C-alpha cells in the first residue's frame, strides 16, 4: 500500500537520517504489525508554509490514490507571523487535496498537530507563552477542519511540550526533534494509521 507524507521540516526530518523521520518510523511499525506498506513518499521541505506546500503539490503532481496520506503543516506560518485566517483557508485547501490523493476517502488521511517549538533551547530568548498561545490557535483551526472533513487528528503537541528542552528529544540545532522524539510521534500516530488502513487493498 502506498503512503504519502506531506509537510515541512518536521516531516522531512531535519537533522535526522531519512529512516528516522516520523513517517519512516510509522511505516516500520506498520510493517512490523504485518501491514504491507511501502516506504513513504515525502513531499516536504524545511521552512515550508501552507502556501509553499500547495505550490509544491502543483509542481510535483503526485498521482493517487494513496492508501494513507499524512499532513503536518503550519509551524512556519506561525513562525513567520502569517495571519491565522490565511492558515485556516490554506490548510482546508491542503486537507481537501490530501483527501483527494487518498482516493476521496477522508478516513485514509491523518493530520498531526503542530508541535510547540517554543519549549526548545532554540527559543530560550523568545516569548514562549506567546508562541504556545499562537500554536494552540493554529492547532484549533486545523483540528476543526480535520474533524469537519472526517479525517483523523493526532495530537503530538502535548508530547513536544513534555519533551521540552530535554537533549534526548532535540537535534544538535536545538530546535528540531530527534529520532527519539519522532519515534514517540510515530507511536502516537500508529493507532490512527492502523485504523485508516484496516481492510485496505494493496495499491
Structure description:
Helices cover 48% and strands 10% of the residues. With 203 residues, the chain is an alpha/beta fold. Helix 3 runs parallel beside helix 5 (84-101) and helix 5 packs across helix 6 (128-149). The mean pLDDT is 95.
Task: Provide key terms for this protein.
8 helices; 48% helix; 203 residues; alpha/beta; globular
Which parts are unreliable, with pLDDT below 50 for 5 consecutive residues or more?
none
- Total beta strand runs: 5
Query: Major beta sheet, specifics?
Result: 5 strands, parallel
Outline: globular
Residue-averaged pLDDT: 95
What is the strand content? 5-15%
**Termini separation:** 5 Å
Q: Counting H and I runs of at least 4 residues, what is the number of helices?
A: 8
Strand order of the largest sheet: 2-1-3-4-5
Order of helices and strands: EHHEHEHHEHEHH
Helix content: 40-55%
Radius of gyration: 16 Å
Secondary-structure-based class equals alpha/beta
